[in-house]
Amino acid sequence: MSDLDGRAVRNVSVRLPEATFDAVVSVARVDGITMGEVIRRAIADYAAARKESPDWTAKVQQLQQQLELLLPPDLPAERTVSNR
After folding, report:
1. What are the residues whose beta carbons fall under 8 Å from the beta carbon of 69, sequence distance 6 or more?
2. pTM of the prediction?
3. Which residue has the higher pLDDT, 77 or 20?
4. How much is the mean pLDDT over the chain?
5. I need a labelling partner for 30 at 20 to 30 A (CA). Which of 6, 39, 41, 60 fits?
6. Beta-carbon neighbour count of residue 55 at 10 Å?
7. Please, which residues have CB within 8 angstroms of residue 2's CB and are 6 or more apart in sequence?
8. Which pLDDT band, with edges at 50, 70 and 90, does 68 fall under?
């Protein structure tokens, strides 16, 4: 599915507490954007900040090690998890 500026998109349903929903509505109205755009920007900001946190690389490496234990021994070891 392609929608946002030609980029592939996926639909996600999220349950929000009423106060959070009201905050999203307020920001959208004040900024003149959709609620979806408010949520997309918030997720993008969170993901970017999370990937910059000191423990990110260690957690990715730990997950990679756990996954490697599940791989058959004949798969190449150079397949790694990236900082996406």
Report:
1. none
2. 0.69
3. 20
4. 87
5. 6
6. 9
7. 8, 9
8. confident
Structure-block tokens of residue 83: 């900082």
**Model confidence at 73: pLDDT above 90:** no
For residue 38, the tally of other CB atoms under 10 A from its CB is: 19
2 within 8 A of 9, measured Cβ to Cβ? yes
For residue 14, what are the CA distances in angstroms to 19, 27, 39, 47, 78? Answer: 14, 18, 10, 17, 36
Residue 43 CB-half CA count within 13 A: 8
* Sequence-distant (≥ 6) Cβ neighbours of residue 56 within 8 angstroms: 50, 83
Q: Token digits for 8?
A: 């592939």
pLDDT band for position 76 (50/70/90)? low
Q: Please state, in angstroms and rounded to a whole number, the distance separating the CA atoms of residues 3 and 84.
A: 22
